Amino acid sequence: MLKPHRILADKISSYADEASAFMRRRRHHRRPYIRLQYRDGGATELHPEDPGSEEIMAAVSHLIACSP
Amino acid sequence: MPPKDKFNSGPGGPARAEALAQRSQLALDTLAGLEPELRAAAVISEDGEVLATTTGDDGWGVVAVELLEALEKAGPGELDSSHITTEDAEVFMVREAGFALVAVTARFVLASLTSFDVRMSLRDIALEAASGGVSGA
User: Fold this and answer.
1) Model confidence pLDDT, tens digit, residues B66-103
2) Using CB atoms within 10 A of its CB, is residue A62 exposed (0-12), middle (13-18) or buried (19+)?
């Protein structure tokens, strides 16, 4: 039989695990990205901080800023 | 880039352009009804002409055209669709039969569902334009 303090420690550590998993998922979901699909079925994912993505991100930011 | 007047040229051109703009506006209104998280959207012709916007402001459409041009420069192939997320909003772009629809939504919408609705709205416009349903002449 587990000692009471072990039950409490396990419970706290499981809550901490849940919280860290939530933060990890949240960080993943909030990650900005650019996904392009082409007529030939190909697809590309660009990182917003890549040099080639600067123009797209500038246009997107402007568009969102102008949106109601 | 100043929009060109492809739909204004030829016989019945202005009437056809007007009918196409009305059809595009109807499609955007329907899309706004389907997507409560939609913030703004615009339909753009192949020539970069803004046919309709949900904001009623062609200036927003011109900014959407700038995004379209930036996206087309990014890749080697013919662009079909794109999905861009930022910390503030999500942007969807779909191309169909020369037309493009750019939509800005709130964060965390269901991307596949929104893409589908955007594509169907644009397909309605493209089909009607192809069948001459918007000829208006």
Assistant:
1) 999 999 888 778 899 999 999 889 999 999 998 999 99
2) middle
The torsion angles phi and psi of B86, rounded to 5 degrees, stand at -130, -175
Q: Angle at CA A24, nearest 5°, toward A20 and A27?
A: 135
Q: What is the pLDDT of residue B136?
A: 37
E strand segments, B1-137: 38-44, 50-53, 79-85, 90-96, 99-105
* pTM value surpassing 0.95: no
* Ranges of residues in chain A whose predicted pLDDT is under 70: 1-2, 29-30
Strand-pair category, A43-46 with B90-96? unpaired
Nearest CA in chain B to A66: B60
Please tell me the distance in Å from A60's CA to the nearest CA on chain B.
6
Is the CB of A60 less than 8 angstroms away from the CB of B67?
Answer: yes
Q: What is the DSSP letter of B77?
A: S
